[in-house]
């Protein structure tokens, strides 16, 4: 009676938690899935920009070499 137990709830959806500490399993899975999608999008954008940058540098090198000949 002296020790009052806290009612733990998921920080994302507000579901009552028994074993977990901050997020329920459903929210953990949802975050993992969205994190994977976001990571894939970011990595593909980085690859696309680096390819575009290397192509632009390659074109500048060819134009500069042909004008000096």
Structural description of this entry:
With 69 residues, this protein is mainly alpha-helical. 64% of the residues lie in helices and 0% in strands. The protein has one helix and no strands. It has one helix at residues 25-68. The longest helix has 44 residues, at 25-68. The protein starts with 24 loop residues before the first helix and ends with a helix. The model has no long low-confidence stretch (mean pLDDT 81).
Helicity level, as a percent range? Answer: 55-70%
> What's the total helix number?
1
As an assembly, this protein is single chain
Shape: rod-shaped
Q: Indicate the proportion of strand residues.
A: under 5%
Summarize the structure.
It is built from 1 helix and no strands. With 69 residues, it is mainly α.
Provide the descriptors you would attach to this structure in a database record.
69 residues; mainly alpha; 1 helix; 64% helix
């Amino acid at each position: 009676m002296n020790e009052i137990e806290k009612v733990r709830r998921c920080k994302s959806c507000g579901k009552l938690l028994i074993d977990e500490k901050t997020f329920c399993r459903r929210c953990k899975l949802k975050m993992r899935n969205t994190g994977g999608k976001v990571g894939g999008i970011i990595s593909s954008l980085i690859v696309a920009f680096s390819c575009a940058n290397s192509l632009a540098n390659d074109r500048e090198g060819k134009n500069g070499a042909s004008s000096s000949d």
